[in-house]
Specification:
Layout (H helix, E strand, L loop, with lengths): L1 E2 L3 E2 L11 H16 L9 E4 L8 E4 L1
Antiparallel strand pairs: 1-2, 3-4
Length: 61
């Protein structure tokens, strides 16, 4: 985020979805907004935690 006068502020947004597919669909929308220069997207990742597993599964984009 760039505020008048050139000050940059970092923003971290975390969203939770009921399914990995919901997260994938949301990421596709955010990436489209970025391509259309409506938002600035610097990095994105999907982290899923399968039930009963001790480790997460991460998909970086």
């Amino acid at each position: 985020m760039n505020i008048k006068g050139g000050l940059n502020i970092a923003t971290l947004t975390v969203l939770k979805f009921n399914t990995p597919r919901g997260a994938e669909d949301a990421l596709a929308v955010v990436e489209d907004l970025s391509k259309r220069q409506l938002i600035t997207l610097q990095d994105a990742a999907i982290v899923s935690w399968p039930e009963g597993k001790k480790r997460s599964q991460r998909q970086a984009n």
